[in-house]
Amino acid sequence: MSGGRGLRCVRPRGVVRGAVLTLVFTGVLATAAATGALPRERDGAGAVRAGEAAGGGATVDSAALSRAAAAAMADGKSGKKAAEEFVSRSGDRWGAVYDKREYAEFEQALDGAYTGVGLSAGRAAGGRVGVTRVRADGPAERAGLRAGDRIVSVDGRAVDGLSVSEVVSLLRGEGVAGSPVALRVERGRAVWTQTLRRARLATDPVTVSRLDDGTLLIRVSAFTKGAGTRVRDAVREAPAGAGVLLDLRGNAGGLVSEAAVAASAFLDGGLVATYDVEGEQRAVYAEGGGDTSRPLVALIDGGTMSAAELLTGALQDRGRAVTVGSRTFGKGSVQMPSALPDGSVAELTVGHYRTPAGHVVDGRGIVPDLAAGERAEERARTVLSGLGGGS
Fold it and tell me: How far apart are CA 50 and CA 43, in angstroms?
């Protein structure tokens, strides 16, 4: 789920102890926010310091960053651009800077709505920017765009040499529904220009269905607000003895608080994850009262990221689920926002998350109990049947 957007601290009801955090999507998946899929997440508020974050990786001195931005503004230059250059030089691979509009748009996205064209973009072969996913019934799909297409230009501006985040910014424009955006697209040897109109799109990150063998299939594409409760309610309403197939493939993450609520559907309280901020260890806990006996299999892949990885790690480490699929993405760093003099917001790495067993997620991902490729769902259903969760 992917540069991206910022998000204010959202305080859950007794789920997260200490700072309330979200996770940041990767630069590629966050691009989806501006283009029509979910953006990346960010973590709660607080200052940062220079040095190494828990688990490794460079961090940024927020005071020095603010001074650099202020100095640029005093010289009549862009404070935001100066901050971006400062973060880029720092080695903080997840650090980023966003203006007020981007920040507000991201908040709307985590509320379950956004303005975009309904496509996700990422770095394609040869360093070019390509379409990685197209939302059903969005402007991009109606225009005939599909995954694998390459973006040549946006509103006449060539995208070669631009970062994915910059391309995303061009695609989103001012975030006004109905505004046009001209995409020059390449597919094989064909090249054409297509004008799309941005639209206000709603997300439905949780879908629940019953399979023919009685299995409850819960697909979670992102942990936006309310997603955790949707998962928990679905499990509570399921028939006794029905197994659950929890599909987290392609889930780019979201709010950690929502992932913790989802964990509460299957755990009777206890640890979901730990993290470290400025040397202080903190923890995320599940609520009590979850269904601890219902057969459960979790489907994961390389698109399973951040908050979805924390949920996966908790279920796996605590022996609550069998995980099937492929290694997850490996995004488990903690970002905290720092306000800059011009009103923009810098998101800076201050620590890393660990699973209940102490495994670092960032840069490593989570290895499934059972590796499976294209037939992962079929294998997962077989495993679930063996656990007594299917007829």
Answer: 18
Q: How many CB atoms lie within 10 A of CB 107?
A: 15
pTM of the model: 0.70
Residue 146: give its domain's CATH number: 2.30.42.10
- Whether residue 167 is predicted with pLDDT greater than 60 in this model: the reply is yes
Unique residue bearing structure tokens 């966003």: 98
Radius of gyration of the chain from Cα atoms? Answer: 21
Indicate left, alpha or beta for 178 from its phi (over 0: left) and psi (-120 to 50: alpha). Answer: left
Q: How far apart are CA 234 and CA 216, in angstroms?
A: 9
pLDDT-derived band at 172 (thresholds 50, 70, 90) equals: confident
Confirm whether 86 is domain-assigned. Answer: yes
Residues 98 and 192 in one domain: no
171 and 103 assigned to the same domain? no
Same domain, residue pair 177 and 273: no
- 339 or 219: which carries more pLDDT confidence? 219
CA–CA dist 252, 248 (Å, integer): 9
How far apart are the C-alpha atoms of 254 and 248, rounded to whole Å? 12
Mean pLDDT of 174-180: 89
Give me the residue label for tokens 């049947």: 385
Coil/strand/helix, residue 87: helix
Give me the number of domains the chain comprises: 3
Distances (CA, A) of 18 to 13, 21, 59, 284: 12, 9, 20, 8
User: Nearest Cα to 49, choosing from 276, 341, 360?
Assistant: 276
Confidence bin at 29 (pLDDT 50/70/90): very low
Give catalytic residues, as residue numbers. Answer: 306, 331
- The token duo for 225 is 């607000």
Indicate whether 57 pLDDT > 60. no
